[in-house]
Write a structure and sequence with these properties.
homodimer, 255 residues, Fructose-1,6-Bisphosphatase, Chain A, domain 1, D-Maltodextrin-Binding Protein, domain 2, five-stranded mixed β-sheet, 7 helices, 29% helix, globular
């Protein structure tokens, strides 16, 4: 279904570009209770129109609408805009995240994340490796002399996040989970650490379904904070922390 | 000299795009003793060719070459690639930073920073305000309910950096000082905090000459860590910490 995912990503890109220059207007709250904005709703509608037009037999789990039963065999797990707050304030890091799965994160078969600022397109099909703009990508072997971590920080981060950030020579934080995961997949970051002190800011299936498959297909690991392969039901309410690493030595370095 | 700065930025953009796909090769060390790479040298050469072609009467202070006396009345302060490490590893945050000045940061007259990933162009002329892609930009009024800080973190950061990051609801870190400054200028970030524990990772004039004028012309403040307006000689060796804020209340919030 790569063609369908690409078409959906392009529909979001065009919808967002059409809104450029208009100050984005916060309208309400999404299905998860989190802040929602007009940009998310417009992007979600663009994807739903593509599914209708293509008569795609897919249910949808989306940040905005929650679960939509369209009588499909599989489910499109969609974050129409990951990094909404970045988009609203002007931090150039936001994306659309798409994944095809069934019941759980572990059964996701195909994923596409598009960086809506640069246009970079990350894609993975289970067992087929990961691609960036059509070229194979791989995680970075851990090198203690060149360590770059992406870490979730701030008032809602768990206290250990600062300690972990202090162990890396370089720290980056994009604030869009799908893009932070793709940094690990392409070898730009050795680790992405997201440990929230509050349940309501932990990550949802829609945030990570795409990026998780892309990291794993690029040779990396997406783990829970006990070091087990992360799994999660594909539901609107499930929430999780996670650590993604390109190389298991990065995980061992923070334990 | 906006036309000349734009032409130089475009020359860098084309030089970098021509290298895309070639793994960047680290060649040596720049004039400041820091790590240098082929991508920086190629970008610097592209700018010097523009100056020669346009017969521009400007000296050059550059990250790579140090100070070049070309018999000019003013000096082009150039970081051909700010965020080289990002570019080499694949973090999509690197820029070219250009400024026209004389002796000190405080006498910079004109500045242009181009985000080489998105193509966004930030420009300011002293007393004329700041522009992003030709439209006026302004800093963000401080709102305690929506605080976003960009903070320099990791093994070389001073210990207070973690404490400051923990005060913001959202933390971002791009790892390219000119772009982190431009986040403050456009109102995306309330504060950019760079306090290095090591002299050799503090910021240089080439890193901040462009972004500092852009922040100030957008209505913000660029301060030293005692809260005074930052100044610095335009030399290859001068180094500094800094805090940039859109609104003085952001500075007061971290004291």
């Amino acid at each position: 279904m790569k063609g369908l995912l690409l078409e959906a990503a392009e529909a979001v890109q065009h919808a967002v570009e059409a809104m450029t220059g208009n100050p984005a207007e916060v309208l309400g709250r999404g299905a998860d209770g989190g802040p929602s904005a007009r940009i998310d709703r417009v992007a979600e509608e663009a994807v739903l129109r593509v599914l209708d037009y293509e008569e795609a037999s897919l249910n949808v789990l989306s940040e905005e609408a929650g679960f939509i039963n369209r009588g499909g065999q599989a489910t499109l797990v969609l974050d129409p805009i990951d990094g909404t707050h970045n988009a609203l304030r002007g931090v150039p890091a936001y994306s659309v995240s798409l994944a095809i799965g069934h019941e759980r994160l572990s059964d996701v078969q195909e994923a596409l994340v598009r960086d809506l600022v640069s246009g970079a397109t990350y894609y993975a099909a289970k067992g087929g490796g990961a691609l960036l703009n059509g070229s194979s990508i791989h995680v970075h072997p851990y090198d203690p002399a060149d360590v770059l971590f992406s870490v979730y920080l701030g008032t809602n981060a768990a206290p250990d996040a600062s300690r972990i950030a202090a162990r890396a020579r370089r720290v980056r934080a994009l604030g869009a989970a799908s893009l932070d995961l793709c940094l690990v997949a392409r070898g730009a970051a050795d680790l992405y650490y997201m440990h929230s002190a509050l349940v309501e800011t932990k990550l949802r299936a829609v945030d990570i379904a795409g990026g998780t498959l892309i990291v794993r297909e690029a040779g990396g690991l997406v783990l829970d904070l006990d070091g087990r392969d992360l799994d999660l039901p594909l539901t609107p309410t499930a929430r999780t922390d996670l650590v993604a690493v390109g190389d298991r030595r990065a995980w061992e370095a923070i334990r």
